[in-house]
Amino acid sequence: MTADAFASSSSVPTVQQGSFLTLHYRLAGPAGDVINTFEDKPATLSVGTGELSPALEQRLIDLPEGARATFELAAGEAFGERNPDMQQWVAKKLLNELGDPHEEYTVGDVVQFPTPDGTGQYAGVVLEVREDGAVRCDFNHPLAGVPVTFEVLLIGVL
């Protein structure tokens, strides 16, 4: 190991694009917490892979390992504005194919749907239920269009 490599490895690492992080974080809007890992196991993520929004990742850049910080983001900055086109009716037939055909949906339920390629999931919040069993879901991020508090404790930076 060279002296320069040793010197840089002994300093406190800071978050950069591509850093792998172990952290606790909290995302909250006006209605309260949406995600809070402080009471549970810490999260792990890579900066620049889309696991957090670009606005949140930008707040992390250059923070040193061990830092605890809170950021206030303006409405729409963290997850964009609410998009009315992201509210869609989902037919009961499709809901039956994707899940339990006996499921009864109510306003406020969060429903998981598979991504078109089948490799992941996305969620919608039930806004309305029709008599025929169809539901109108809001697929906007729950914090879209509202001010967001982002609190973070960086446990490890690789």
Q: What does this protein look like?
A:
This protein has 158 residues and is mainly beta. Helices cover 14% and strands 36% of the residues. It contains three helices and nine strands. The protein has helices at 3-10, 54-60, 92-98; strands at residues 20-29, 32-36, 43-46, 68-73, 87-90, 110-114, 121-129, 135-138, 148-157. Strands 1, 2, 3, 4 and 9 form a five-stranded antiparallel β-sheet that branches. Strands 5-8-7-6 form a four-stranded antiparallel β-sheet. It is elongated. The two termini are 18 Å apart.
End-to-end separation in angstroms reads: 18 Å
- Low-confidence parts: 1-8
Task: Kindly provide the radius of gyration, computed on alpha-carbon positions and rounded to a whole number of angstroms.
Answer: 20 Å
Please state the overall shape, judged from the principal axes of the Cα atoms.
Answer: elongated
Structural class: mainly beta
Biggest pleated-sheet summary: 5 strands, antiparallel
- Mean of the pLDDT scores? 92
How would you describe this structure in keywords?
36% strand; 3 helices; mainly beta; single chain; 4-stranded antiparallel β-sheet
Write the layout of secondary structure elements.
Blueprint: H1 3-10, E1 20-29, E2 32-36, E3 43-46, H2 54-60, E4 68-73, E5 87-90, H3 92-98, E6 110-114, E7 121-129, E8 135-138, E9 148-157
Antiparallel strand pairs: 1-2, 1-3, 1-9, 4-9, 5-8, 6-7, 7-8
